[in-house]
Design goal:
Chain lengths: ~100, ~180
């Protein structure tokens, strides 16, 4: 099971800044291990980020997003103590969901 | 072996490289997705536009060329000052390239990131709903020195920005 995501959301002047780091190997399927055997592809395909049930960003990723994908974006609204929820699904159908409270300025 | 990106045509052993093997896997998966969408459509489970969208998605993300990915998306390159794309001029490590897109357009929009020389050029797509700023920053893998494109779709129009980046060590995973 993948490690927990690191989520930091901070609201200031009616706007919320969000950083999300999703630990994931993001294997392309093009690499080989030390013995020269191919390492099969394994990468996050879908990410959905919401606040109090409202979707603020959804993304479709490919294998070309770097290992441990990092996303940074901003949205209008969001108050301190609101819950920001991030859900990802990967190419093997694994899924992970994490939440964080929005911090005040 | 530098195996992240597709074998160069001048490499004799290239055809048997993991890169191509995976590409054919991807095309099988693409085929499977297409069949599945068609089957669901026939069964009346999926409405037509949804089935179409799933098929186009698989085609766009599975396309081995920039042109192929763009045409699967129905997108065109239309350089616009409304789109700002920030990518470093020089990157040492192609497997971690910071990319930032800012759009001056208003309303909901979709931001696409493409890296021209990658085995699969379409890197990511972000749906930006109303209320979210049309700005996204992330890190991508870039196979070798090439153009990075940001394409933004807003109200059925496409806008783009391009930036060339020079990569010292390709997004070569085994490095």
């Amino acid at each position: 099971m993948a490690e927990p995501m690191r989520i930091r959301a901070r609201s200031k002047d009616g706007m919320t800044d969000v950083h999300v780091l999703m630990p994931h190997p993001m294997e392309t399927g093009f690499r080989t291990d030390d013995a020269g055997r191919p390492i099969s592809a394994h990468y996050i395909t879908d990410v959905e980020i919401s606040v109090q049930g409202r979707t603020v960003l959804s993304a479709t990723l490919s294998r070309a997003v770097s290992q441990d994908p990092l996303l940074y974006f901003r949205f209008n609204g969001g108050r301190a103590d609101d819950t920001l929820r991030v859900v990802w699904t990967d190419s093997r159908g694994e899924r992970r969901s994490d939440e964080a409270k929005i911090l005040g300025s | 072996m530098c195996a992240w990106f597709a074998p160069r045509p001048d490499t004799p052993g290239g055809l048997f490289d993991a890169g191509l093997a995976d590409r054919s896997l991807a095309s099988n998966r693409r085929e499977a997705l297409r069949l599945m969408a068609a089957a669901l459509l026939a069964a009346g489970v999926l409405p037509w536009p949804v089935a179409r969208a799933a098929e186009n998605d698989a085609l766009a993300f599975g396309s081995g060329s920039l042109e192929g990915a763009l045409s699967a998306l129905g997108a065109t390159l239309d350089p616009s000052p409304e789109i700002r794309l920030a990518v470093p001029d020089f990157v040492e490590n192609g497997s971690v390239v910071p990319v930032e897109v800012t759009s001056q357009l208003s309303g909901p929009q979709t931001i696409f990131l493409l890296s021209e020389a990658n085995p699969f050029p379409l890197v990511a797509r972000f749906f930006v709903p109303e209320g979210t700023l049309p700005y996204v920053s992330t890190r991508i893998k870039v196979a070798r020195s090439c153009n990075i494109y940001a394409v933004v779709q807003a109200e059925d129009r496409y806008y783009s920005a391009v930036k060339a980046t020079t990569v010292t060590v390709g997004g070569c995973g085994n490095g």
